[in-house]
Specification:
The complex is a heterodimer of chains A (about 525) and B (about 140). Chain A has about 525 residues and is α/β, with parallel strands linked by helices. Helices cover about 25% and strands about 20% of the residues of chain A. The N and C termini of chain B lie far apart (about 75 Å). By secondary structure, chain B is mainly α. The chains are: A alpha/beta (about 525), B mainly alpha (about 140). Chains A and B meet through helix 2, helix 6, strand 5, helix 11 and helix 12 of A and helix 5, helix 6 and helix 8 of B.
Amino acid sequence: MTKLDPVDVVVVGAGLGGSAFTARLSERAPNLRIVCLERGGWPDRDAMPALRRDWQRAALGPWATSPNVRLASGATASADYPIDDASSPIKPLMWNGVGGSTITWAAHVPRLHPSDLHRRTLDGVGDDWPFSYQDLEPYYDLNDIALGVAGLAGDPAYPPKRSPRLPPLPIGRMGRTAARGFDALEWHWWPVDAAINSVAHAGRPACSNAGPCLLGCPIHAKSSADLAYWPAALWRGVDLRTGCIAQEIVVRGGRAAAVVYRDPAGVTQEQPADLVVVAGNGVGTARLLLASKVARDPDGPLGRYLMFHPVAYARGMFHEELDGPSGPVGACVYSHEFYETQHIQLQITRENSLLAQALRLGPVWGAAAHRLVREEFRHSLSVMVVAEDLPEPAQRVTLTRATEADGLPGVRIEYALSENARRILDFGLDRAEEMLRAAGAYRVVRVPLAPLTGWHLLGTARMGIDPATSVTDARGRLHDVPNIVVADGSLFPTAGAVNPGATIGALALRIADGVAEDLAS
Amino acid sequence: MRSEVVGAIVDALLPGDGGSPALPSATAAGVTARVEAGREAHRPVIEEIARAAGGEDAFLAAGAARRADALRQVEAAMPDVFAALLLAVVEEYYDADAVLLAMGWPVEPPQPNGHPLPAFDEALVEKVRKRAPMWRDPRES
């Protein structure tokens, strides 16, 4: 093992949290020597399948959303590791490389509601965050500006947002049909905030409305952490080391001393540092911290309180022609009519590819399959019911006895859909069907729980005041090892019912400012 | 296993329709080549489907209903290998030019040209915009 020259800060992970953190810290403290270790490489946009004739099939194998499916296909574009998800009805999804899961995200970037940060005080459930929405708000604005967000000011579901916005994305016939249903019921709806260029911006072109954002965006219209944060961080001298897999955080005398990692040649290196920042998402962060045995109580909160956003769908069939798989797949319109009362978001999603839609039909074969695919394709509208997942200690990420090919212990998800989540999903499905009928749907199909929706990996190194129920303090510093900082969605004490990207970015920026202040003092 | 039996089986899975434009049968869409390429992997399920109909000749002579019965029987008895065959057929079929065109969808990859959509019309949200704030302010609790 080679022991490298010490640096000030080692960041593990170049996803949204690690990227935002690193860019901000390098701006606030330009004299720091910062190294970022990323297990994957840079995205190769020329190789993204949306440019190829086989794009539909790529989504089922090498560009599937699940790392387990990608590994089974032999794909290597994402530096994946297997996750034992047999004990979870929701399958964890992610992308491993520079930019992290923003490479393949839908780029829908709603903020939490202010009430989401105070669920215990307001409603007697979940927990409170150790700070308020107002504390986070300036960082939401900074993150919006860095990503470049298309959207529309004036949404009554939110406090006014101060950051400038590009014009809203087109909602198409699908969005207008949904709006007709929401309007008929006098329910709230609004065009999404999306980190997608509706017009040319920041040297990147406008979205072409191609559709399959989850296959990456080869034309750079969709923003992602590699585009939004890394150019500035690299220009300021951050040393980003790709293909480097952190194996262990070395703790001596109650303080982190170094990160041991495997470099692209397979050689083990030890990188000493004064501060270690972990940003590997709710699975990867917990895995590394558990493997490094940083917690004094091995049965404590680290790895626990895993939250997804459980998702159900209602799909309405319309006689009129809609747009099919045109437009950013996850960025159309949403309703927060029931957000503050039932803690659900109703989100309109665009159709998937013809192949993906044909595969989910029942039956998939026979003359009936042809009738169904003709009925649905270009004539269906899906309402995604996104539910808040309350934090519960039994929902967790844990290690297995195996050692995986990347040198780390295996990782397993232990998760069950809670009664509360089931109840609010069912409420949401009823409301989704009501809206679809009001919009003119003549038939509605329900999907009670969609398994391949586990993008949002939250809560496994949660912030809080009490070390018995939290892993870090409000600045992301581990209670047990204060020079280890977490800067990703693992920190969330509660999840809200919206996509977490905006909050992960904002939180990482805030954590970086805290580190800069700590180091300055 | 004769090629015409393989063709008859994939056509029983996806027979096409009489729509306008018509969805082609699986063999007309060119699916057989992929199943033939994976013939050894699919051989057990193909043989079982033929056997369920009374043999290869019986399957070829059978009408649509009897062929479908044989497929359903094997689907229940050998779900994993049947699913693998079905996936191979469905993947190839719904990616075929003739099928995409029959469904009114272009065969070109989605990027870089994409699809035209009109700009968002802000007038659509005027009514919603006038609603009172819907969010709870914890500072007022």
